[in-house]
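question for whoever is on the cluster today: can someone run the full assembly for these? two chains, 551 residues total. i dont have access anymore since they changed the login thing
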Amino acid sequence: MNPILLIASKESGELLLSTRGLACLLAMAVVLSGFGLLLVGDTELSLLDNAQVVYDMAGIVTALGALLALVVGVDTVAGERERGSLVPLLLTPVSRDSILLGKLGGVAIAWVAMYGLAAPYLWAVGSTGQNLVDGLAAVALLGTPVVLGFGFLGIGLGACLAMARTGLLIGLIALVLAASPLLLGPSLRQSAIGRAFDAVNPFSAAVNAYDAVIIDSVPIATQMLNLGTTAVWLALALWFARTSFHRVAR
Amino acid sequence: MLIEIDKLALSIRGVAILHDVRLSLGEGEIYGLIGPNGAGKSTTIAAALGLLAPAAGTVRVFGRDPRREARAVHAGLGILPEQGGFYDWMTCERYLTFFARLHGRSLSQSELRDRLARVGLAPRPGQPIGSYSRGMRQRLGLARALLNDPLLLILDEPTSGLDPRGRRDIHDVLLALAERGVGILFSTHLLDDVDRLCRRIGIIVEGRTVAEGDVAELLRSKSCVQRYRLRLAGEPPRAEVSHVKIVALDGGWWTLDLDPARPPQAVWHDLIAAGWQIVELRREGGGLEDLYLALTERRVA
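^ ran it for u. tokens below:
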């Protein structure tokens, strides 16, 4: 088997077969269940328009996916280093780039697992409306680069910082800042600073595209600018992960 | 030479860790790298593996620069880090198969069993590595390090935390490998390990090699005799035995100093052949321990 696939399958085993990985997925399922119940069961929230509910859920899935990817990304380098399992991997006759690609593959598999976990919840809250398929497609197309970017950021932080905890903390601060469009009201986002931040924030790009596609029913093909912003973010995070991973000493 | 390190200096984040380290290791040799905590043993190993870049000096493994030709160097060496580095959720079979494939090899079930048997482990289908004892993990780490049939094995504290039986088993495996021509470099705090396994050692203190070479020659050059106490059935024969000096007789115990040039086991054979009826034998210090203390205390003081 190709070493990249081999390492990626090891990483997926870490998520799907280890107690730590399963606990992560279970926590994600609990959070999604909580939000799902709120959206369909709460008296006031259940009055929301179906498209609005799918939009909210899409944002939550993207944020949770980014969180999971970040945790997996930091753990796959810094966590392994702390457990002593990184050095034997680095000392195999496999190139650093192949090891990194395998680890990036692990982050991608974590996102696929998260997406698979979230799909029934999206269906549960949005199956009565017309926007479910658009929502699923928007999350797949625009959520994926945002989420993978955070996973790659986690790998980069894990590689350049001495402790996994520090990497996770910095990554979480970055994630909370980036995901602030989900928390901030529309008026704050319309301020000069809010607009400037939105222009460079990949999370804003994804959320704005969700808004257009799911709520305003605009074709997804019109969201190239937002898609470009998320792609630039992904490229920058990949560059950071590669540069940092090549410097890992032990 | 499998490893040649000369005048190695190395800094990490601006802090000088190694100042002047040297060592050389040939085929079939077991080389002990010893020194106090924080002396730079693990850093030296990391430099030999190509994980850290030297600030000065040379590092050659198989005659190559381990940083520039990392893949070629890694293909020929096996490593057991101090922290074994296991995936606790995997079974040992899956773990070895994973690393064998990364080395471009595939293992059949019988090869797998054979690899495990070589280090004294039996297959445990379905049992995750997380449930293994420290000794079992060390054995598994050794099995992983040997997957590519390396010419050079680098071990960081391979027997620390093992019970006497576990240590003896690891010693036996290492001796058998050295007999087959594998060069072994290992760092340790346990002088008993060095005594039993190594013909050559390097002592590192504060990032400098303060002694390096053949153990017997080092002991002789530093006048570190090996002192033993023996209880005999009766008096010792009058005939002198070479390499032995009787120092004292105290309550039926004879104190002897052994010439460091001759291994103790060989001296016991000589004594028994000369008619000494040895009932009990105790080590009184001296030897490597004295050498180590003398070289490290001087620096600490």
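summary bc i know u wont read the tokens: The two ends of chain B are 35 Å apart (CA to CA). The interface with chain A takes residues 12, 46, 49, 51-52, 71-72, 74-75, 77, 79, 81-90, 98-99, 101-104, 144 of chain B (CB under 8 Å).
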